[in-house]
Amino acid sequence: MERRKFLSMTLGAVALAAVPASVKAEDFRKSKPTVWTAHTVDDAIKAMYGSNNLVMEGIKLKAPDVASNGGAIPVNFSTDKDVKTIAVFQDANPEAAVLVVETNKYSVNKYSVKIKMAKSGTITIVAQGNDGKLYAAKKTLDVALGGCEG
Prior knowledge:
Layout: H1 2-18, H2 28-31, H3 41-49, E1 54-55, E2 59-62, E3 66-67, E4 73-79, E5 83-90, E6 97-102, E7 110-115, E8 121-129, E9 134-143
């Protein structure tokens, strides 16, 4: 009986240790709704960060030059900068904002996503540094005929 009690206490302690003390994530759709309705990349960046003064460094962005399927364009981006958020914007769809990721000091800021673009355009990645700067990278690509339907 002692062995069972020991095992249940050990497993309980391991389970508690695996649960983070607090998990926090901001819902940017609620806190910054105008970001998601902005029709231009500049307006969306301004709504998200209060400025659109971009420093074109510190972000690595990889996307195809020509996307054969506008419904699933692979976009890879990363940064080694100490950042608060990383956001993806594009100028081919009616709303410019695609996603915003909140980071922390433990984040590995290397991402791979697939986005939709109805036509050819530019993808812009913006990372808000803890130093207050907005680091960015841009990539213009062509979407083959068919847009999001491929």
